[in-house]
Model the fold of this input.
Amino acid sequence: MTSAMSMTLNAKPPEPAPTAALTGVHLAYGRQTVLDGLDWALLPGQVVGLLGRNGSGKTTLLEAMLGLREAESGSIRLFGETVATLSDAARARIGYVPQQSDLFDWLTPTQMLDYFKSFYPRWNDAKVEGLLSKWNIAPGKTIAKLSGGEQQRLAIIRALAHEPDLLVLDEPVASLDPAGRRDFLRELVDQVLNRGTTVVFSTHILSDLERVAFNIAFLSAGRIALQAPLDELMETTCRVSGPVAAVQALLQSRGLVELRSTALGGGRQQVLARCAANAEPPSSQGDVSVEAVTLEDLFLGLTQ
Ligand code: ADP
Done:
């Protein structure tokens, strides 16, 4: 085999171009910095739950990503284009459900959807009709008379109808009752999975994410503190506690990355740590204890 051939065979497939790429994004309201040099990439087909405490900047981030709010510095690209000068063709590939949708509430769902249909080159009538009936939305009732949950579902139908390649949902289940939230989100994601749509939805409610988001991004202090597939996160993250020197020695010898450390007093510390993607966390040894973490531990640890 020639060396050129072996190089070709051994070469890794190129990473797909990100659907959204944010680099060094900075955005402040007056003196309050909300996005502080944030880097983020969403790859085609990824389903990402954006997790952050109330007021951490999730809405600001999603709006900036879509060009609805101007960042002071940094670069934001969607489908390879700069967001500030996004082409109509790229715009038509986005579906967005804001926290408060302006649905033209004097119209009926049918009238509103007909109106939006005229703006898009692609529109899936069968999907719209199927979802209206599945989600029990009366197509002829004035939107103002629909419940909050029905209006939220209608906004989602509007965002799915043109089969977007990037679907952005800001707290999409806020108006639904707690019991139905996760199942509805799962169903929503299933709607787009076979098309390879990139999905990002924000939430501050952990239970929304289980069985729904394959990737979780934690927003904290104006940056994405960590993004990884949920199952990988749970398998590779642990809590290490014990005397500082012994904890640090274990982290170093096993190549664990410290995510957050808390002083426990008496020369002891507790560290939330992560090992490499395919490595297993160490076991407890001597004075040092190593425990598994829950998603809640991670949320509390990473979004302080
Ligand atoms: P989240 O979606 O995570 O709850 P937001 O992005 O809504 O967070 O808000 C982040 C912070 O920015 C909050 O402290 C909020 O009060 C502030 N904020 C949001 N929008 C504005 C605005 N238009 N003007 C001034 N401050 C704002």
User: Anything to note?
Assistant: The longest strand covers residues 32-42. The chain has two domains: 44-66+88-221, 235-302. Residues 29, 34, 52, 54-60 surround adenosine-5'-diphosphate (CB under 6 Å). Residues 1-7 have pLDDT under 50 and may be disordered.
